[in-house]
Each structure stands twice: as structure tokens, then as C-alpha cells.
Amino acid sequence: AEWTNTEESWVVKASGYTSDGEITSSTQIITPLSADSFTWRVTDKFIGEELGAERELRMVRRPPKPDLSAK
Fold first, then answer.
1. pLDDT at residue 71, rounded to an integer
2. Which residue of 15, 22, 23, 63 sits 20 to 30 Å from the alpha carbon of 36, by its own alpha carbon?
3. What is the rounded CA–CA span in Å between residue 54 and residue 46?
């Protein structure tokens, strides 16, 4: 994978093979939103000759819930 740092995000160009031997590739864009969150967008996703759908996830770190059983 090739990682490139832009002013706002990281761009990852990745390629590989499926377990069936088909070539895969994608561009992934990781954009920090805060110290505890970022978006992860997948574009230009190919499996063989088939173009996959774009996807975007928002990841948020949350602290664990307090243990109310402790005394």
C-alpha cells in the first residue's frame, strides 16, 4: 500500500488479490475530525473488473462505561 499525507487527510492506494486470485484495488481516504474521531472513505474499489460501491464510515472513540458494581 502507498500512503500519502495531504493537508487534511491520509490517502491510501492499496492493491492485492482475493482468495480466488482476482486482482483487487482501492483508494482509501482517512480524515481526522477530532482527537477522538475520523472518517474512512473507500473509493475506486475494484475486484477484478467490477467497480464496487463507495463507502464511508465514521469512527469515534468512546471511553468505557463506569463499573457501577465496584464499591
1. 61
2. 15
3. 11
